[in-house]
Amino acid sequence: MTHPHPSTRTILCIAACAGLLAFGGTAAAADAKKPAKPVAAKHAPAKAPVEVAVPEAAPEQIDAAERVYYGAYECEFNQTVDIEKHPTRAAYVNVKSGKSAWLMKPVLSSTGAIRLEDTKGETLMVQISSKSMLLNVKTARRIVDDCVSPKQRELIAAAKAAKEAEAAKASEAAKSPVDAAAAAAAAAASGSTTPAATSSVAANGSATDPASAPK
User: Fold this and answer.
1) Does 84 reside within a domain?
2) DSSP assigned state of 171
3) Cα 208 off chain centre by
4) Residue spans of alpha helices (H) in the chain
5) Is 65 helix (H, G, I), strand (E, B) or coil?
6) Residue 54 phi, psi dihedral angles, 5° rounding
7) Total number of domains in the chain
8) Fewest 10 Å CB contacts: which of 14, 19, 36, 72?
9) Cα(198)–Cα(204) distance, rounded to whole angstroms?
10) How far apart are CA 206 and CA 193, in angstroms?
11) How far apart are CA 39 and CA 45, in angstroms?
12) 159 backbone dihedrals φ, ψ, rounded to 5°
């Protein structure tokens, strides 16, 4: 029994199927060689800044903290500084300027000025009656200057008023001797018998005084 020869069409179909199978195997092998895409890591939440451990405040520090001018300061070049009490650490203060913030320890200096010393030793805030300034300790440069708090504005206004009052008092005191001399001269010219005129005449040995009249 003889088998029929396959037709040309059947041969082409078999060849096409074989080609597809070969291509699929090559593609699968290529995909297997490709490195796997890394899985996108989840963004970890930002860590809160680690706060420096600080000792408990001594009585001197507590006294200095009570002398600090708290609140918002207006500084040069439209800059600002804000000083507030630390919510949990007694006699320590938080100082903020721009995007920076520092934990500081109040210290009373021998001159009466208040020093706010950074617990990390990087910055220093100096407070006097008329103004405050923020310094970088490491570079010895001023971060911001001419900072004035509401309390300092009150002290500046009070000092100005006291100075003006003292100047006015001194001016009046300078005029008093001149006015007294003028009044005495006017009284003497008019023949007044006021004590000032009488004493003036007596001092000059006037002839109107019987005791001093020539005999």
Assistant:
1) yes
2) H
3) 77
4) 8-33, 59-66, 150-189, 195-204
5) helix
6) -125, 150
7) 1
8) 36
9) 10
10) 13
11) 18
12) -65, -40
Measured torsion, CA atoms of residues 35, 39, 43, 44, in degrees rounded to the nearest 10: -100
Per-residue pLDDT of the chain (215 residues; tens, 9 = 90+): 555 555 665 555 566 555 555 555 555 555 555 555 655 555 555 454 456 789 999 999 999 999 999 999 999 999 999 999 999 999 999 999 999 999 999 999 999 999 999 999 999 999 999 999 999 999 999 999 999 999 999 999 999 999 999 999 998 888 776 666 777 777 777 765 555 444 544 445 544 454 555 55
Residue 214 has phi, psi (to 5 degrees) of: -70, 145
pTM of the model: 0.57
Residue 202: HSE in the Cβ half-sphere, 13 Å Cα cutoff: 8
Which CATH number covers residue 113? 2.40.128.50
Helices 150-189 and 195-204 sit at what angle, rounded to 10 degrees? 60
At 209, phi and psi to the nearest 5?
-85, 115
The 8-class DSSP code of residue 211 comes to G
- Establish if 205 belongs to a structural domain: no
Amino acid 78 reads N
Does some domain include residue 87?
Answer: yes
Quickly tell me which residue has 């005129």 as its tokens. 197
Is 85 strand, coil or helix? strand
